[in-house]
Specification:
Elements: H1 2-7, H2 13-16, H3 20-27, E1 31-36, E2 44-56, E3 84-89, E4 93-99, E5 108-118, H4 120-127, H5 141-147, E6 164-167, E7 181-184, E8 202-205
Antiparallel strand pairs: 1-2, 1-6, 2-5, 2-8, 3-4, 4-5, 7-8
This protein binds a DNA duplex (12 and 12 nucleotides) through β3, β4 and α5.
Length: 213
Amino acid sequence: MIARLRASPALSPTFFARPSREVAPDLLGTILVHEVAAGLGTDGLVAGRIVEVEAYDGPQDRASHARAGRTPRTAPMFGPPGHAYVYLVYGLHHCLNVVTGPSDEAGAILLRAAAPVAGIELMRARRSAPHEPDERLAAGPGRLGAAFAIERGLSGADLTAGALRLLPGGTFGAATDRAAIRAGPRIGVAYAGEPWASLPWRFRREGDPSVSR
DNA sequence: ATAGGGATTCTC
DNA sequence: AGAATCCCTATT
């Protein structure tokens, strides 16, 4: 399993070069992999199947971090597709996004939850959650960040090549069928006002136990 | 320089 | 329901 994950080619930049709300549902079922080099304490490979995402658009989307235009923190959102945008929320949790659309047009997709497929004990150790069921270890954007050892230094990293990457869905096990995808409003964006707060830009696999609560 | 607040999670 | 906790962004 680990060897196959290491050998699999990642999704290409062209996959991400579309509007975030179009890429978002296609991300369900893809596999997030992060290999951390030995010697850092919590080294090893972890992987999980993406089961929940949220699309964010450019400055016109008042729920998006791009609403203030290009700033030091959000610069990756205006960069090339397929790269990471990482931020710290509430001073506590690191959240991982994938940048979409062409360079100079802001767009990103927040990875909100994944079903663990490899490195499960490593995820449990990083989360310091000895009694958490396997399927809940990356159930939520902050939990996913901790389980996958996401940090701000990864913001701007290329997710189509490198230690942190996304693999196509369907390669390992069944592909996610479109009928099982459910759309709804994004979480925690009431401050954006209408219509942004109600747009159905959160996508998840219906009934999957790893979706956030 | 400083104030206000957040794309969350855990515990009480 | 409330706390934890840091850094971003806008304003003075």
